[in-house]
Amino acid sequence: MDRNRCHSVKLNDGHFMPVLGLGTYASDDTPKSKAGGGTKVAIDVGYRHIDAAYAYQNEKEVGEAIREKIADGTVKREDIFYTTKLWPTFFRPELVQSALEISLKKLQLDYVDLFIMHAPCAMKPGEEILPTDESGKIILDTVDIRDTWEALEKCKDLGLAKSIGVSNFNHKQLEMILNKPGLKYKPVCNQVECHPYLNQSKLLEFCKSKDIVLVAYSALGSNRDPKWVDSDSPFLLEEPVLKAIAKKHNRSPAQVALRYQLQRGVVVLAKSFCDKRLKENIQVFDFELTPEDMKAIDGLNRNFRYARFQFVANHPNYPFSEEY
Questions:
Q1: Could you give the 3-state DSSP secondary structure of residue 191?
Q2: Which of 84, 122, 138, 181 is in Cβ range 3.0-4.6 Å of 91 for a Cys bridge?
Q3: For residues 236 and 221, is the Cβ–Cβ distance under 8 A?
Q4: Helix/strand/coil percent split, the chain, to 5
Q5: Structural domains for the chain
Q6: What sign results for the dihedral spanned by CA atoms 149, 155, 160, 161?
Q7: Angstrom distances, CA of residue 242 to CA of 127, 196, 247, 302
Q8: Which residues of the chain have pLDDT under 50?
Q9: Catalytic residues
Q10: Is the dihedral of CA 100, 112, 169, 198 positive or negative?
Q11: Residue 118 labelled as part of a binding site
Q12: Full-prediction pTM beyond 0.85?
């Protein structure tokens, strides 16, 4: 049994996903080379799950890092679980496969392990990440997410993606896919913002009941990119409750926040390109939070979102108007 298999969860399609992943999103002012360097260090220290996206615009660098680590014998391709995401400007069914092929070409890989819809709100098709009109308003598009889902199913059938899933969907949008006539594959996961200030307990229960894995992004709070996040947002890792629990276990608040998710059955993404923190964040398998610790962290929930996706707030599919 390889070490990473025991730190993995079995998805509803039979594939395995490592329960701790590296997030590769970085703000525009971060050099793209940082994502490549961080990915290499992450693989060296033991990460096998790399979470990326077309919209992060650094897949070329991340792909180079993965291929370099395969070439030097550190890992084989099948050891790596790579996720990319379908940006909402490619939601029209006829664009889906070509969008994935753009990512594969940048990565120089034959397939991705997971291909997910980045958010349920379609935007005007095209190369622009945020298509705007003359007045600077986002140009939305109307596409039935079930039609987009069918195109993802085709990508799985073609072997371009081993597994398919969604991100930023609420439970009603998940239901829409699950209840779709002729559904061929269920989403294996729903990747959402999830941390002690937004613990998503209702969505987590819903996903568990449907055999869908909840994957947590912004699990350590957020990198506060002004493009997406308000500057007055709270600093999660400064939270006194987390600091006290961390001190008790002789750990960092980040390690406690990650461990909290693992113990709830959530797959968790940790974003860092800093060597020290990359090493620290993966050291979460050799300690356990007590039931009291878990309850105290549960008590921090205040349904606070760092990433509110305000730019699509007018979209009929805007996911965050629902309670969960």
A1: strand
A2: 122
A3: yes
A4: 40, 15, 45
A5: 3-231+265-273+304-318 (3.20.20.100)
A6: positive
A7: 41, 9, 9, 15
A8: 1-2
A9: 56
A10: negative
A11: yes
A12: yes
